[in-house]
């Protein structure tokens, strides 16, 4: 059954109450309680693609059980984070990378009470030594801004996860990770491309569950932050901007598990030499 759905893209939005009631008469009622909770998001995604009835069952399960919120606080997101850090590392090793000005993307997963900005910066610290990063003193004093040279706030903080948020996150990751498997002279790394495709497939499955929860008390809420770090000197006016777009497991971001897109941009601003 799962193999039939390998090409699935996403689940539908949460069904209406009348739609849910119609399917409560199906002989699969106990699936939501006894089977589906043990499925990974990718498996739920695949099952939903096998037919209209299954799609409705999975959507009802996601909307009623806070499925998306649950997966934000488990090993699923930790594995996504680890895979994203590796793609970011490969991008910083690529022939496209410029040490005087770059933009890198990864995913950061946090637990309640954990500082998302610091978590993201800690992950960027795993990049090669030629990737310039703000030092510890600068990190203690981030400056909140609304618009940077590469990215701006979109006004989604406090709002539910939507298809527009999905497109924003997907577009950013695709643009930044492409250099991990395509070199400037046209060489193509098929193995790395497959890794990127698998990461995106797993992300889309999670995003699909989040869209099913839209409009319910289990909706995934967004948090968006944009900060800047400056390091002026006689040699250069270095500037970093860090943008995070996080999916939160509760309406209170401070007490939420989060999975966030993190974009770090750097401009050297050399003045001398």
List strands and helices in order, with pairings.
Layout: H1 17-23, H2 31-34, H3 41-48, H4 52-65, H5 67-71, H6 75-92, E1 101-110, H7 116-124, H8 136-139, E2 143-144, H9 163-177, H10 190-212, E3 221-232, E4 237-248, E5 258-267
Antiparallel strand pairs: 1-5, 2-3, 3-4, 4-5
- Find the structural class using helix and strand composition: alpha+beta
Counted by DSSP, the helix tally is 10
How big a fraction of the residues is strand? 15-25%
Give the termini separation: 63 Å
Number of domains: 1
Main beta-sheet strand count, sense and barrel state: 5 strands, antiparallel
Q: How would you state the average pLDDT, rounded?
A: 86
Spatial strand order of the main sheet = 1-5-4-3-2
Helical content (DSSP H or I, runs of 4+): 25-40%
Estimated radius of gyration: 20 Å
Residue stretches low in confidence (pLDDT < 50, at least 5 long) are: 1-27
Total beta strands? 5
H-E string:
HHHHHHEHHEHHEEE
What is the overall shape?
A: globular
């Amino acid at each position: 059954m799962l193999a039939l759905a390998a090409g699935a893209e996403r689940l539908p939005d949460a069904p209406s109450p009348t739609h849910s009631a119609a399917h409560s008469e199906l002989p699969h009622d106990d699936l939501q309680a006894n089977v589906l909770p043990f499925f990974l998001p990718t498996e739920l995604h695949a099952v939903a693609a096998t037919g209209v009835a299954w799609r409705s069952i999975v959507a009802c399960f996601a909307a009623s059980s806070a499925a998306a919120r649950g997966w934000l606080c488990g090993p699923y997101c930790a594995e996504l984070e680890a895979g994203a850090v590796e793609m970011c590392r490969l991008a910083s090793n690529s022939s496209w990378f410029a040490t005087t000005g770059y933009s890198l993307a990864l995913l950061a997963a946090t637990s309640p009470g954990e500082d998302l900005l610091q978590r993201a910066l800690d992950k960027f610290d795993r990049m090669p030594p030629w990737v310039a990063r703000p030092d510890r003193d600068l990190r203690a004093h981030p400056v909140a801004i609304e618009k940077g040279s590469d990215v701006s706030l979109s006004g989604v903080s406090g709002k539910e996860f939507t298809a527009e948020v999905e497109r924003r996150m997907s577009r950013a990751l695709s643009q930044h990770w492409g250099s991990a498997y395509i070199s400037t002279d046209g060489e193509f790394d098929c193995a790395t491309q497959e890794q990127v495709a698998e990461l995106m497939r797993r992300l889309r499955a999670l995003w699909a569950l989040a869209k099913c929860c839209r409009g319910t008390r289990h909706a995934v809420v967004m948090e968006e932050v944009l900060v800047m770090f400056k390091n002026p000197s006689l040699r250069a006016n270095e500037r970093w901007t860090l943008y995070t777009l996080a999916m939160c497991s509760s309406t209170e971001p401070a007490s939420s598990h989060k999975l966030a897109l993190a974009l770090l941009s750097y401009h050297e601003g050399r003045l001398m030499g």
